[in-house]
Amino acid sequence: MKQSDINTKTCLYGVLGDPVSHSLSPLMHNTAFDHIGYNGVYLAFGVKDLGSAVAGIRALGIKGASVTIPHKIKVMDYLDEIDEQALKIGAVNTIVNRNGHLFGYNSDCLGAIHALKEKTPIRDKHVVIAGAGGAARAIAFGILAEGGKLTILSQIKEEGEALAMDLGVDYYPLSEYLDHGCDIFINATPVGMTPHVDDMPVGPEYLKASMTVMDIVYNPLKTRLLDEAEKAGCKWVDGVSMFVYQGVSQFESWTGKKAPVDLMRQVVLSALA
User: Do residues 156 and 138 share a domain?
Assistant: First the structure.
């Protein structure tokens, strides 16, 4: 949208997170708005005071927001109503403002499962998730719904144990990964995200050719984890597919319009290239 096209009827959206400088959500959503001729603008908001930020959504009439690290769980305390699936997951990544009434949804689950099933079946597979935050919760919920067998790994013991207890699955410290091989390994932490591109949640010696490895980090497009997974002969799933599919769900919830999926994927891939 050109600056001259912004007017008093322009709908404002944004992403709430800390950090958000790496986010490609503004590029993806603004391109999609422009493509369908929707009078909307999407911005990135670096948020430390989450309560005040959500109050600002109401006060300013912001139509909707994405929620990212580290706010996906805490944001639930500030919303008026939460979707049943998001309640079960225990995390929200999407806010829809309906006349000052804030609804919370979770599109991470749909995005992750859609992306993963493009490469591997999930039923009866042993899945290990590194991480216990909002994204990990959403993905874990989806894995169990698809009939996968799940183990949670986390460096933060309290978070890992809490998530494992909520789901009725096993928890182990991340350092014990070697003792618990798997069919599918998913990094649901920010480890490896720009600018810390040399970091990995586990060492390359733990990656076996029989595994499928998924990393929800999408910037860089191919993290060091995925590079090492490819070298080990693993199938691998980058974070772009999950990112795009969850964004498509958000876009359609906010606008009531069909999202231009291929364009959204193309513009993200082009930016990362």
Answer: yes
